[in-house]
Amino acid sequence: GQTGQTGPPRVTIEEMAAEYIDSMRSRQSRGPYLLAGYSLGGVVAFEMARQLTAAGEEVALLALLDTALPPGDESAEIDTADMIAKILRQRVGEHGRPLEIDADALRALPLDGQLARAVEILGDLEALGAEIDIPLLRSLVLGYCSRETALERYRASAWPGRVTLLRARDTDPALRDLTPR
């Protein structure tokens, strides 16, 4: 994120896919291409396959690992307070502790206030946040919000190829209903 930025940078799955295609073509100028991805990377791989096929390229493999295509809600907006709460819960959970955090209380603050409060919470938990400062947390939050917003907004178009979907044996039941078509 840029210094002074108050919201997530705007990026789309289509733009991410186009960037990866450009990078891939610098190493392999022509297909057939083998694509695979997990989670967000799986959605980007799906969009890459769609763009490559539309450009007349061959995609020999599209493998998605525990990936569900999003619902395509064009108005989706991932809130920084929700993302900060999620990051804090995960960080504290890695140390075997639960954390109750009120995202609504964070939401009442401007972004700088949300970040300062988050660093304070981590600092209060016996140095769990010692290596996380406000600039690092700002970068993490804005990056995650940007990617999550792009993911939620992405509306998958039909792709004529075959999708190989690999799933873990124990999968969140919500994902089972979102199998790529």
Proportion in helices: 40-55%
Give the low-confidence spans: 1-5, 175-181
> How many extended strands?
3
Quaternary form: single chain
The chain-level structural class is mainly alpha
Describe the structure.
The chain has seven helices and three strands. By secondary structure, the chain is mainly alpha-helical. A three-stranded parallel beta sheet has the order 1-2-3, covered by helices on one side. Strand 1, helix 2 (40-54) and strand 2 form a beta-alpha-beta unit. Helix 1 crosses helix 2 (40-54), helix 3 packs parallel to helix 5 (111-124) and helix 3 crosses helix 6. The two termini are 34 Å apart.
Summary of the model, kept short:
With 181 residues, the chain is mainly alpha-helical. The chain has helices at residues 13-27, 40-54, 80-93, 103-107, 111-124, 134-153, 173-176; strands at 33-38, 59-65, 164-166. Strands 1-2-3 form a three-stranded parallel sheet, covered by helices on one side.
Strand-helix topology:
Layout: H1 13-27, E1 33-38, H2 40-54, E2 59-65, H3 80-93, H4 103-107, H5 111-124, H6 134-153, E3 164-166, H7 173-176
Helix pairs in contact: 1-2, 3-5, 3-6
